[in-house]
Amino acid sequence: MVFLLSLLLQTTILPFLKIGGVMPDLLLIFLIFLALFRGSSKGGIAGFFVGLLEDLLVGRCLGSRALSGFLTCYVAGVFEGKVYKENPLVPFSFAFLGSVFYQLVFFVVQGFAGVSFFSFWPFVRYAVLQGLLNGVIGVLLFYPFSNLIQKERRSSQFFRLYAEVFRR
């Protein structure tokens, strides 16, 4: 549900809210946070499939967003359980660094595919500005997302316990 709403906002409203020609990436923010809570395997898989969906909808180079999403979320997921998530620097840092890493992989893949020419300073400007935007938005969205994940965990634990009781 969160990802569908993010995709809807990403493709309809956010293109009109660009700052310096750069649009925040809600899908990437939520994918990074999902990886932080669910680990590298689930994060990487989610990053791949959401990236593939984005490639199919708006991409010129099929697989570039899928690979970028997979690698970014896999790396973010490695830190599951290793960072103190209640620290406000965590959502900012992961959204910022994850966004810059995503853009680096994306531009390199696009460059190797011959779709776009990699130019260092425009890349740095774009990646850092998007990283800052995603970092600020990430701080605002992290705690509601965290609460949603915690509620989902509690409900799934309840249903597992319920199934275990009635299986006997």
Please specify the SSE layout and strand pairing.
Layout (H helix, E strand, L loop, with lengths): L1 H11 L13 H13 L1 H19 L5 H14 L11 H24 L7 H48 L1
What characteristics describe this protein?
168 residues, mainly alpha, Arp2/3 complex 21 kDa subunit ARPC3, 0% strand, globular
CATH-level-2 architecture: Orthogonal Bundle
Query: How many domain regions?
Result: 1
- Name of the CATH class: Mainly Alpha
Percent of residues in beta strands? under 5%
Largest sheet features: none
CATH topology: Arp2/3 complex 21 kDa subunit ARPC3
- Summing up helix and strand content along with how strands pair, one would put the structural category as mainly alpha
Please explain how this structure is put together.
This protein has one domain: Arp2/3 complex 21 kDa subunit ARPC3, CATH 1.10.1760. It has 168 residues and is mostly helical. It is built from six helices and no strands. The protein has helices at 2-12, 26-38, 40-58, 64-77, 89-112, 120-167. The protein starts with a helix and ends with a helix.
